[in-house]
Amino acid sequence: MPSQRQRNRQPPPPHRRLRRELVGGAGGAWATTKPPERTANHMLGLLRRAAVASDAASAPAASLRQFQNAYHRSNERLFPCRDQEVSYGLNWAIAGRGVVVKDKVFHNLETSELQKGGAAYTERLSGIPLHVRGNVISGIPDVSRAQFAKLLKLVTFHLSSISSLYVQDGAVGSSVECDAKVRVISDNPSAVLLLSNILWKTPDRSISHDTCPLTIYVASSISANVRNSLGFGSQYANGFAAADIERSSLILCGKAFADSAMLKGALSALTAPVLSARGGLRFPGWLQSFGGSAVLLFAPVDVIKSLKLQDVLVSTDSGVVVSSKGSNVLFATKAREPNLFTRPTQVIIVSSDSTYALPAVSKLSPGQAAYHFLAGYCDGKFIPAYSKDPSPLDPIALANSLFSYLKEDNTPTYLINAKSSGKYIDGKEFMRLIEVLLSNNLPDRKSEDIRVGELKGKYKSFLSNKFGKYLPKEFSF
């Protein structure tokens, strides 16, 4: 009888021997011969027991149960795609998101590899409909729990039928100290190419070590019957997107992946709870760097474009995360390597008023800064918290966070009026005003006149009607 050591040295049985073949060169996908029936059934049995043991209401468990029958009908196999450890981990992770790997997985391909696989930069779109479940800012269509669950079932079933899946990992937030990890599961390499230019790169296996990664499902070739089954009309011909903040999931159907503005707004909303839980204050603003120090800027997007400030900002997209470690931007634009800036040394709130009720430059207390930030005044209109994007964070909560931050850090805060003689000032004049306030050489504020009183009344009327008794007493004009 062979000893225990001799038994250990014996080769594994045939059904455990996996032939690996590299597809697409270094960094590409690995494929293996399909394991026999009992091995696949063993894996599915483990998945089934794991799903039953978990909370019946959880999305991963429900998705696993939904797709086990489809798996048996298609008679496909689960198999690893790189070395045994990595491949099984990746396939199990994808299965945990409701998608069963049919054939190949292309994981974290470089741009050149994606292009060799047929990826191309598609025409940019705008105005793709987005439905968000769990946002508190009005103006964004909601999606019910049942609708999202139905859509998720259809999309994951579609992705499970695709021969080649593209999985790309990234992050929202340019600092590893405070970011939100994102995994893309796509049927289209072009979608991965675009999304990889929006997301920051992350170290290998960072997703597997993250406690709450966001999942983006891209179903570009899904049938139009999906749109019809959800009751969506002809305006969804180019595609649509649906996000569930509670599930940390975003679904992109059709050509929705080509609308980068919509994508960034959805990702900003979905990652806000994660960043907050990790000690980050996520603000709808911009960072400006001055000799090693950072300035946090709040302004409507239209004002940023009118002042032509894109070239002097760290990122051309709204979204800043401030933590105890420093500050960083949400989306990759100019620099391809994640970067952590210092905590803002100044905060600037930009309004636009042609009545001369607001001076060119004025210094604000923390309560005044939170008040103007909450109102988001711009040419007679109000944009609460300077954001039109969906968000699970109440504007009052954001304003309170800003108030606490400014008060605790004693951060100097200023208000700049972007209008002069009824027109927007140019970028050079704006930068001159910043230099004035940074030197603390501010002009004396004129005494109040009737125009200031009228503007105060507009602020008070809007904020009282919008937030009522929830408006903190510390906030003032």
TrEMBL record:
Keywords from the UniProt entry: ATP-binding, Lyase, Nucleotide-binding
Q: Is ATP-binding among the key words of this record?
A: yes
Q: EC number(s) for this protein? A: 4.1.1.49
**GO biological process assignments:** gluconeogenesis
**Annotated pathway:** Carbohydrate biosynthesis; gluconeogenesis
Q: Which reaction(s) does the protein catalyse, per the Swiss-Prot or TrEMBL entry?
A: oxaloacetate + ATP = phosphoenolpyruvate + ADP + CO2
Q: Which domain of life is it from?
A: Eukaryota
What GO terms are given for molecular function? Answer: ATP binding; phosphoenolpyruvate carboxykinase (ATP) activity
- Cross-referenced InterPro entries: PEP_carboxykinase_ATP, PEP_carboxykinase_C, PEP_carboxykinase_N
A cellular component annotation (GO) from this entry = cytosol
| PANTHER family in alphabetical order | PHOSPHOENOLPYRUVATE CARBOXYKINASE (ATP), PHOSPHOENOLPYRUVATE CARBOXYKINASE ATP
What family is this?
Belongs to the phosphoenolpyruvate carboxykinase (ATP) family.
**What protein is this chain from?**
phosphoenolpyruvate carboxykinase (ATP)
